[in-house]
Amino acid sequence: MKFLRILGLLVIVAFVGIFPVGIAPNDAVNSVAVFTLIGAITVVSWNIFSGYTGYISLGHSVFYGFGAYAFALASQNWHIPGGWDPFLLLPLAGLVAGAVALPLGWIALRTRRHTFVVITIAFVFIFQLLATNLQGITNGSGGVFMPLTPWTDGYTDLPFYYVAFAVLLVAIFVSWRIRHSKFGLGLLAIRDDEDRALGLGVKTAAFKLTAYMISAVFVGMAGAIFAYYVGILYPQFSFDPVVDITIALMAFLGGLGTVAGPLIGALFVIPLQQYLDLQFGGNGVNLMIYGALFLAIILVLPQGIVPSLQSRWRAWRASRNTTLDSGKRATNQEQPAFLIERGGKG
Amino acid sequence: MSLLEVQTVSKAFGGIQALTTCSINVEQGTITGLIGPNGSGKTTLFNVITGYERVDRGNIRFMGQDITRATPDRVFSLGIGRTFQLTRIFPRLTVLENMHISAKRERLKALFSSWSSTQEQALALELLAFVNLLRHKDTPAGNLSYGQKKLLEFALILVAQPQVILLDEPAGGVNPTMINELVGHIRTLNEEQGVTFLVVEHNMEFVMGLCHTVNVMHRGTKIAEGSPDEMRKNPAVLEAYLGA
């Protein structure tokens, strides 16, 4: 079983690895693939905080923006030529985003639930305004230009694709490690009953803040890759509420708080978003379809794809077990199947 | 010196005086009962001891150390565990994961390594076997029955090996067979490991059969203390309960 699992993972990694050169060597498709990877980084990273602790942040685009601007301004001021070199600034972008998360988390995490969500949304607009108006630093709505890449047609997307893929792998690894660590268990306990967790010795304030900062780091790196890929950076497209909505949509579709769920969500949402923007972008129909999709998800799959499949699988196994030895089962006090199927563990 | 000393503690919520200069001592190695009519301040007393509420006046000392303003995690790490009247476990985590939350780890490296380390795992499994929940270890805890949740909450406190355990109505809503089981567990821990208990309970049979001493609370303060038999005959206690 474990062998099969590792084999399956390797097959997926290999598939994603050769996708842009072997399977779809086409600029349009590759561009969607790059955006999908960037989106996947953001949602996997966001999930480390919001998915595990249950604190829904709709303000992670602040870290996206800080990562992007740190990257852009550093490459501009240090006169870094286009090409592979700017990618060396990615850790810096991540660190800046993580550092920004310290004071923001310290403020926002004093609140819970709806208040927390509203405060995180406020962060987005505060920093969007600042980025627009602090023209001395950000050049305001004039935007900041990225280093020009030397790569030519048919090859332009590949560096971004592989760098984003590498960052994504690191983010998934961190998320997976945290999920199975004592630290992650504490985060999940906070999701279920924060005060109880505190009363059992979990240092909830420190746990939440640490997770918030870790999740900001990779979102910052994603923002930097995005900015470099697009080539020009504007305040309204980096400190962007749409980024936050997209992250939430991906996470809810795939399954909040699971390791694999956000990835599956990204795989569905970003290509669809790109397609809709391309087909109906001009007249706003894309946003209507987008909203309808959100509603449909909440109605049909309120738990998300991965948890729903897990519970179906569990229910199926439980019902199979009961039919196989129903005679024995009737006498002892095993859990009935209808109780087991409601579990939503990731 | 008592193990746990509550000294003239007062606590008000708005206009309601939940505790009024209430003092209670819990001696090491005893099972102490805490009874009183509804609204007499028993649960509030638990909340101020465990750091969930701050006292307005008074002191709380544990092993001679002042814990009046300690936070819940600090109180727990000093060795005071508690259960809640309405059981509070982590419903979406499995039974085994629940058991690991209270296991103490301080160092950063230990925090970021796997939660199921061998020594903690052995203890968690042993305690689950102790309360008869071992076969449910991979079930989400929210799917357990009410009585099983109470047992799980009891067991997950034990993982941290506290010196004192505060039980808030452990027998409430639990069937008689399981109550007997629980009484057995409490006795075993008390006699074999010297764990001290402070028990709030309305089930008089449970209190009288189990406790060494009983404290009676009424309107936010202690009105009597003594052996279960003495309390049964105490006029002040009868008055508080019967309102005569």
Write down the domain tally of chain A: 2
Instruction: Please state the CA-atom Rg of chain A, rounded to the nearest Å.
Output: 22 Å
In whole angstroms, how far apart are the ends of chain B? 36 Å
Query: Which CATH C-level class of the largest domain in chain B is it?
Result: Alpha Beta
What is the CATH T-level topology of the largest domain in chain B?
Answer: Rossmann fold
Calculate the terminal CA-CA distance of chain A, rounded to whole Å. 18 Å
Q: State the shape of chain B.
A: globular
Q: Helical percent range of chain A?
A: over 70%
In short:
By secondary structure, chain A is mainly α. In chain A, 74% of the residues lie in helices and 1% in strands.
Structure description:
The complex is a heterodimer of chains A (346) and B (244). Chain A has 15 helices and two strands. Chain A has 346 residues and is mostly helical. Chain A folds into two domains: 273 residues, ABC transporter involved in vitamin B12 uptake, BtuC (Orthogonal Bundle), CATH 1.10.3470; 41 residues, no CATH class. In chain A, helix 3 runs antiparallel to helix 4. Chain A is globular and about 65 Å long. Chain A starts with a helix and ends in a 6-residue tail after the last helix. In chain A, 46% of the residues are buried. The C terminus of chain A is likely disordered. Chain B is globular, with a radius of gyration of 18 Å. The termini of chain B are far apart. In chain B, the strands form two sheets. In chain B, strands 6-7-8-3-9-10 form a six-stranded mixed β-sheet, sandwiched between helices. A four-stranded antiparallel β-sheet of chain B has the order 2-1-4-5, with helices on one face. Chain B is 37% helix and 24% strand. At the A-B interface, helix 8 of A face helix 2 and helix 3 of B.
Short key terms for the protein model shown above:
heterodimer, A: mainly alpha, ABC transporter involved in vitamin B12 uptake, BtuC, two-stranded antiparallel ribbon, 15 helices, 74% helix, 1% strand, B: alpha/beta, Rossmann fold, six-stranded mixed beta sheet, four-stranded antiparallel beta sheet, 10 helices, 37% helix
